Amino acid sequence: MDNRSFGEAVRNLKRAGYLENEIGVYVMAGLPGQRVGEVEDSISFVKEKGAKPILVEYSPIPETALFEKAKKMSKFDLENEPLFHNNSILPCQWEGFTLADFKRLKKKVNV
User: Fold this and answer.
1) Where are the alpha helices (DSSP H) in 59-110?
2) What are phi and psi of 97, to 5 degrees?
3) How many domains, in total, are found in the chain?
4) Is the backbone of residue 62 left (phi > 0), alpha (psi -120 to 50) or beta?
5) pTM (2 decimals)?
6) Domain range spanning residue 44?
């Protein structure tokens, strides 16, 4: 879905009677190589369109193309320890997107 279609979808939901706090939009955070600014921009965009962003953490899934990227950049041993697939540790954290960044964004969207 592109940005224009997204905005149109939110407008249609509002015309159908939904309130802003009833239109939740998942924003994925912590993808391999994702920068905190990208997530901040997505959160702002969702709010601008009149919906409520819901921040969710990326969790690596073995045997996917994204898992291969995650293995290369994660400081955790994703290949040999399934516990590191747990999204609560932000498996793909790096200097461009830290666990502290994630916690700050989580607070921001849950206000």
Assistant:
1) 65-73, 99-109
2) -160, 95
3) 1
4) beta
5) 0.89
6) 3-109
